[in-house]
Design brief:
CATH architecture of the largest domain: Sandwich
Structural class: alpha+beta
CATH superfamily of the largest domain: Carboxypeptidase-like, regulatory domain
Oligomer: single chain
Helix content: 10-25%
Strand content: 35-45%
Order of helices and strands: HEEEEEEEEEEHH
Number of helices: 3
CATH topology of the largest domain: Immunoglobulin-like
Radius of gyration: 33 Å
Distance between the termini: 120 Å
Number of domains: 2
């Protein structure tokens, strides 16, 4: 009788383990650089979008990674190489008991700077003590006001000290 109870308990535990492993999902893949070579030591960050739980796994010498035991749901998967985010997939769906393959292949990029010509506008709030309303002002590429804008609005910017000297000199001249 004791042997029968032990045998039934053993089968029950084995069924539980089998069901538990079938109920989890697996995320795996390969990470390659722009030349098609595997990247070793890259971080794969897997964040559950509903709970915010973050898991991290590193790639092996063959650029492979595997993370088992994930619950079904939506995840954000981010590839980090040498501390820099190289790619991010925001809506990866893992299904219950299935294995999902997610490979990363980096593409070669050229370092370039795009200069966009056009108008740049900055919001200038009303000055304290002024009756001038707030307004949008066009600025040049360096962040300075354009000469046309200053002339069109007939204004000159001076410091508080300069204003005080001007007021004093005019009051003494009367």
């Amino acid at each position: 009788m004791l042997m029968k109870s032990i045998w039934i308990g053993f089968i029950g535990v084995m069924l539980f383990v089998a069901c538990a492993s079938a109920a989890s999902s697996v995320l795996q893949g390969i990470v390659k650089d722009a030349k098609g070579h595997p990247i070793q030591g890259a971080d794969i960050r897997i964040e559950a979008t509903n709970t915010g739980r973050l898991l991290t796994v590193k790639t092996d010498v063959y650029g492979r990674y595997t993370l088992e035991g994930l619950m079904a749901g939506h995840y954000r998967v981010t590839l980090v190489v040498n501390g820099a985010v190289k790619a991010s997939i925001n809506n990866t769906t893992l299904k219950l008991g299935e294995s999902t393959q997610l490979n990363f292949e980096l593409k070669p990029t050229r370092a370039s700077v795009t200069v966009t010509k056009g108008k740049h506008w900055v919001w200038v709030p009303a000055f304290t003590g002024s009756r001038l309303p707030a307004r949008w002002v066009e600025v040049d590429g360096s962040g300075g006001w354009t000469a046309a804008d200053a002339l069109a609005n007939n204004m000159v910017r001076i410091s508080a000290e300069e204003l005080q000297r001007t007021v004093q000199s005019r009051s003494q001249g009367k």
